[in-house]
Amino acid sequence: MRCSADMTPGTAGAAGRGGDQQAATRSDQPAGNGRGRGSSKSRGSSKNSNRAAQKSTSRSPAGRADPARRTAVDVLRGVDERDAYANLLLPALLRERGLTGRDAALATELSYGTLRGQGSYDAILAVCSDRDLAAVDPPLRQVLRLGAHQLLATRVRPHAAVATSVDLARYVAGPRPAGFVNAVLRRVATRDLPGWLDIVAPGRAEDLVGHLSVRYSHPRWIVMALSAALGEAEAGGLAETEAALAADGRRPAVTLCAVPGLASRAELVAAGSQPARWSEFGAYLPDGDPGDVPAVAQGRAGVQDEASQLAALALARAETSGTDRGRWLDMCAGPGGKARLLAGLAAARGAGLLAADVREHRARLVMTALGGAARAGLAAAPGTAGADAGTAGADARTAGPAAGRPGAAAVIAADGTAPAWRPGSFDRVLADVPCSGLGALRRRPEARWRRSPQDIPGLSGLQRELLATAIESARPGGVVAYVTCSPHLAETRDVVGGVLASRGDVEVLDAPGVLAGVPGLCCPAPDGRFAQFWPHRHGTDAIFLALLRRGAHAWPRGGEQR
Ligand SMILES: C[S@@+](CC[C@H](N)C(=O)[O-])C[C@H]1O[C@@H](n2cnc3c(N)ncnc32)[C@H](O)[C@@H]1O
Question: pLDDT digits over 396-449, tens only?
Fold first, then answer.
């Protein structure tokens, strides 16, 4: 089998919107007319092959493939061939092609569902194909996966699933492979998903991890990483790991977050959503386009996973010691979901927020996210994320007006490992570090196939550096929230443990205690003071949170208190 988060769109209107805020653009350009390697081969270079293609087109027009399925296959191809992010590419294609309503909903369900189920589908297709799946032309492989998804996990009638897949094969690769696609998918159609999984997944008793991997469509290493974070051993049966894997296969709810001071949960509820369980600013949108909610459209609320909201709230609630100076820092802020909430919380207490991101375009997204706050008087410093970043950096370094003015929010493009601000400046610091994203697999379905265990050491090295700087940036008595959207122990417990081992002036606060209303947050012993959210327990992303406080009498390393 081949192996590789604010919302998975559940509705047409919601397609591709939201997305907590951690998506970075790689290649998010629409895939043009969707013809790629296969189609250019089929178009050929000679007049003859052009004529042949036209002839076959007139018999079986490529245009017969319906727009929703063409869009879905183009998303799958963009993800596979150009490293695109589905949550960016899909909305771009829907817009470009004018797909709305049912078509957009179908394209969304087909692309996300296929990416989620890819591991299971590949195992099934391998049995149904007389060709090695790895040797099948990549665009056709996507057509087969899409066909398998429709046959095994949707209510699309089998003959329609097969016929539309044959049309799609023509769309991506011309007429030749149509027979192959037809034959493979007709074999897939002979059983339902459980029936196939009984055949293709290893037995539970022989290879439990392998069984779960195929059954729940996750690479083996992720099954093992989740079970380690849950404190489960294979010998014990991995029951909770199985629940976590199953939850990754479900569409997440669309959760909204009101920006304190600009909107309220009551306003979101009045606009048709339901109050969130734990976040006083959160509300679940049962259906429809978040952009149709006036507070969202006006930038006074956003789409944000509830655990992300709670991580920011926990930082705001954690107790500092000593005298607060009214300066908060979000040092990895792009695209700005938590910064937007923190800015509102800080403003309510007369504090200012400095939001930084190493990448300029991400810093610009933070500016956009803070736009609503700026309009309401939170005064996002203009131009700080662009050409003027150096100036803003100077502001920040001297904890000048933009960084420290009560009620102000400033954004800069700056590397958190080489800070543009003085150490020991901030009462509260958020280090929401770049991570593997294993906690947001519901919303970033391709991440499970794109990531590999080899990514983890590099990420955890950067995470340690950022956490070390975050602690240095806090004033003595100030608090730091270390947050990842991954439960992988090497990115969570081990990072915090490693950094704290090198210094004796940091206290680990009781994060589950700070979020006392949320059940089931405690990490397995002996790490019970860290908080870990889970999709299967909380219905949120698998966000990790450690709250740390610098000793009240500590001084910044190599510096003095200013
Ligand atoms: C997990 S995302 C942050 C999500 C954000 N807090 C939110 O809620 O929208 C991590 C961010 O860290 C940024 N980043 C990566 N390396 C960094 C560094 N050395 N310094 C500052 N930011 C960095 C990435 O560009 C990315 O935008």
Answer: 333 333 444 446 889 999 999 999 899 999 999 999 999 999 999 999 999 999
476 lines ligand 1 (CB under 6 A): no
Strand 254-258 and strand 301-303: the pairing is antiparallel
Q: What is the dihedral of CA 239, 154, 184, 117, to 10 degrees?
A: -40
Concatenating the DSSP letter of every residue in 85-136 gives -HHHHHHHHHHHHT--HHHHHHHHHHHHHHHHHHHHHHHHHHHH-SS-GGGS
* Angstrom distance (rounded) from CA 432 to CA 305: 14
pLDDT band at 175 (very low <50, low <70, confident <90, very high): confident
Q: How many Cβ atoms from other residues are within 10 Å of residue 54's Cβ?
A: 11
Nearest to 363 by CA among 394, 342, 341, 388: 388
| Cβ atoms of 251 and 8 closer than 8 Å | yes
Secondary structure of residue 525 in the 3-state scheme: coil
Distance 299 CA to ligand 1 centre (A): 21
Q: Indicate whether residue 21 lines ligand 1 (CB < 6 A).
A: yes
Count of H helices and E strands in the chain?
Answer: 25, 12
Closest residue (by CA) to atom 11 of ligand 1? 332
C-alpha pair distances (Å), 210 with each of 118, 125, 193: 15, 17, 17
- Ligand 1 midpoint to CA 488 (Å): 18
What confidence category does residue 3 fall into, taking pLDDT thresholds of 50, 70 and 90? very low
Q: Which of 310, 328, 357 to mutate to test the pocket of ligand 1 (most atoms within 8 A of CB)?
A: 357
Q: What digits encode the pLDDT tens for the residues 253-263?
A: 999 999 999 99
DSSP state of 522: B
Q: Read off the pLDDT of residues 93-121 as tens digits, 9 standing for 90 and up.
A: 999 999 999 999 999 999 999 999 999 99
Whether 485 is a known active-site residue: answer: yes
- For 213, half-sphere exposure in the C-beta direction (CA atoms, 13 angstrom radius) is 22
Q: Is 19 in the pocket of ligand 1 (CB under 6 A)?
A: no
| pTM of this structure | 0.85
